[in-house]
Amino acid sequence: MKKTCTFIYEDMTDRLFISRKDNSDKIYGSIRILNVILDITTNNEVANIELIDASQYLESLGLDSSILQNLTEVEISFKQIRQGYLIAFILKSGKKAIAVPYNIQMPVNKQIVINQF
Asked: Any idea what DSSP says for residue 70?
């Protein structure tokens, strides 16, 4: 089921906040991974996501960060890949749309042995 996203971009703090939270959702906790904060519900779903230093992140990917100033719609998608997740922020401004990827690698449960010289 696709949830409607509400969003706000704060230019002064350079933060993009996206909410997928319904009135019935209860926040269980938050996880910060580098410059992303995820709010997780008691059903283990992402209710809110915040991208810190949003314009800097877009520019580091070679994307035009000016889209943040005139957003008309935002979508997010989550996909499990290999040992992690891909979060895609789809930012729309009028007829212009860009997809902003964000990869999260999960630690592997195997111990890595480093040979000593």
From this structure: G
